[in-house]
Amino acid sequence: MSQSTLDSHGQRHSVAELEDLAFELRSKLLYLCGTYEGAVHIGGDLSVADILIALYHYGLNIDPSNIANPARDRFILSKGHAAVCMYIAMAMRGFFEFDEIVETYGQLDSAFGMHPCKVQLPGVEASTGSLGHGLPIAVGMAKSARQRNEPHRVFCLLGDGETGEGSVWEAAMAGRSSELGNLVAIVDRNRQLMTSFGEDRIVLEPYPDKWAAFGWNVVMVEGHDMADLVKALDNLPAPESNRPTVLICETVKGKGVDFMERNLAWHAGSLGQTDLERAMASLEASRASKEKN
Amino acid sequence: MPVTFTFGEWFSARTVIGQTLADLGEEYPNLWAVTPDIGMTLVEFREKFPDRFLDVGLAEQVAVGVAAGLAYEGNIPVVSGMLPFLSMRALEQIRTDVCYPNLPVKIIGTHGGLVGNGGSTHYAVEDLSLMCSLTNMTVTSIGDPLMVGEILRQSMKMQGPIYIRLAVGKSDMVLYEPGQHDIQIGKGIVAREGTDVTIFTHGTTVAQTLEAADALEAKGHSVRVVDMFTLKPIDADLIERCAKETGGRFVVVEDHLAYGGLASRIADVVVDRGINLTGFERLGIPQVFSGFGDDEELRNKYGYGLSATIEAAQRVIAAKN
């Protein structure tokens, strides 16, 4: 397994530590959502919070002090509207300061905006935001790594709603055809689009079968179970193998805040002071109940 | 194998592209060729560099997206295909995945204009308008088959993306002797000197315009022909100079919608610089879906063929100050 973040004892993060980091990430997300005046894509941020912690603090071989290292793993946030969640996960990893995000987010000339921009923020791997664009780019990166005999992986995080875009499936075919075992798609299967619940208007099921039919190695993951995420990352096929892998992560949009969970009203929004306190209380309660179980 | 040719003969631009890329592949170990199932031009490259050749099948969006991913990794990808599809189906990938991060992706293709008799699905007639509107994009349209090799070579030193438009590219007239003109991206070529009128053109209509200039000369007119093969950035200084030196008389002929292509770009320069013109006519495709026919028949039908060019030049020359 690749090098990952270490705890204060020089050990790889344990699942419990990663869970604490995920709690911290969610708290910071809510704080930003409560202090920034504009809308934050809080629903889809909360559904990928555990995934992004598992990647940035465990799975990805990256070094914040050497962002251009050719040997690093690549990560593309194809669901670019979860940018702020990625920024915070990156800040917690040491790419930049959380305060910098809070102080400048969405403001004129800030590097931190609603969708990630490679030009403004070189620590991200690609400018994304328009859905269905990330996986083709990831295929190009993985293909390049293959041609150069570089052993790193290319990860790409997509929303399940995003996979309605035809270009995702074009890329799925291309990834399989080029036998890119170094390519890992991660789907945030939160079963919500912006204005509808999964299956109500667009039928994605049988969802894992679709990826399997495109020749991908399909792994089902509990997307809010850190142990399961860690296991999935630990057990990825070798990058030299000949099939791309998709981790289909079952998630809940708005995860951790009871009044946001599975609530179409919270695709994006902002929290006032009162709602921020309510949201924080709900997050604390959700953690306490998890610990009790 | 070096390209051999004879001036004034017909030659395949596709052959030039294939040989040029195969040569450049040696020089640039990071040069890639990507295609959505239009790979005949790339056979030589594919055979020499199979690990840097990728045919994604019929998937223009992924062809351009993959090229962006390759370019992010420091490669120089050339995406080769048919322009009606690359310029429209993959337009958003070109804009967002390539132009936004300003990646060195080259989009090169055929079927620019009413060429190839494929019908309106297979004619790129809006492409130059679309491409010229994209930030960071350099836009070219090439008539001389040998020139496309030179443009590809020059483009290897460029930072950002470039769009290279050809007609069918199977059989094009060699227009320029090597070394006859200083060919530089961003600079128009004065293909023929003259003082009564300037005819600006690009791509497939350059040969026809030179023929028109010969016919006009036989009638006693001195006609300047400018091959404005780079539409963006436009050579504004040359436009201004031509206005001064040819009595403010301009004709623009192009195998593209008459509004939105070269004529519109020249008109922008004229207005922005406050250039006084005596006469201005634009010949190009009207806002119609044009139907079937040979290239020449369609140019004649839609008013930008040889005789239409001669007549327009005569009208503009006759225009009073």
Structural description of this entry:
The complex is a heterodimer of chains A (about 290) and B (about 325). Chain A is α/β, with parallel strands linked by helices and about 290 residues long. Chain A has helices spanning about 15-35, 40-60, 85-95, 100-105, 135-145, 165-175, 205-215, 225-235, 275-290, and strands at about 75, 155-160, 185-190, 215-220, 245-250. Chain A has a single domain (about 15-290), classed as Rossmann fold, CATH 3.40.50. Chain A has 9 helices and 5 strands. In chain A, α8 (about 225-235) links the parallel β4 (about 215-220) and β5 (about 245-250). In chain A, about 50% of the residues are buried. Chain B is of the alpha/beta class and about 325 residues long. Chain B has 2 domains: about 10-175, Thiamin diphosphate (ThDP)-binding fold, Pyr/PP domains (Rossmann fold), CATH 3.40.50.970; about 190-320, Rossmann fold (3-Layer(aba) Sandwich), CATH 3.40.50.920. Chain B is built from 12 helices and 14 strands. Chain B has helices at about 15-25, 45-50, 60-70, 85, 90-100, 125-130, 145-155, 205-220, 235-245, 260-275, 295-300, 305-320; strands at about 10, 30-35, 55, 75-80, 105-110, 140, 160-165, 170-175, 190, 195-200, 225, 230, 250-255, 280-285. In chain B, the strands form 3 sheets. Chain B has a 7-stranded mixed sheet, with helices on both faces. Chain B has a 5-stranded mixed sheet with strand order 9-11-10-13-14. Chain B has a two-stranded antiparallel ribbon with strand order 1-8. In chain B, α1 packs parallel to α7. At the A-B interface, α5 and α6 of A face α3 and α5 of B.
What's the helix and strand layout?
The complex is a heterodimer of chains A (293) and B (321).
Chain A (H helix, E strand, L loop, with lengths): L14 H21 L6 H18 L14 E4 L5 H11 L4 H7 L29 H14 L6 E6 L6 H12 L5 E7 L17 H7 L3 E6 L3 H9 L10 E6 L22 H20 L1
Parallel strand pairs in A: 1-2, 2-3, 3-5, 4-5
Chain B lengths: L9 E2 L1 H15 L3 E5 L7 H6 L4 E3 L4 H13 L3 E7 H4 L4 H9 L6 E5 L16 H6 L5 E4 L5 H9 L6 E4 L6 E2 L15 E4 L4 E5 L3 H14 L4 E5 L2 E3 L3 H10 L3 E9 L4 H12 L5 E7 L9 H7 L4 H13 L3
Parallel strand pairs in B: 2-3, 2-4, 4-5, 5-7, 6-7, 10-11, 10-13, 13-14
Antiparallel strand pairs in B: 1-8, 6-12, 9-11
Helix pairs in contact in B: 1-7, 3-5, 8-12
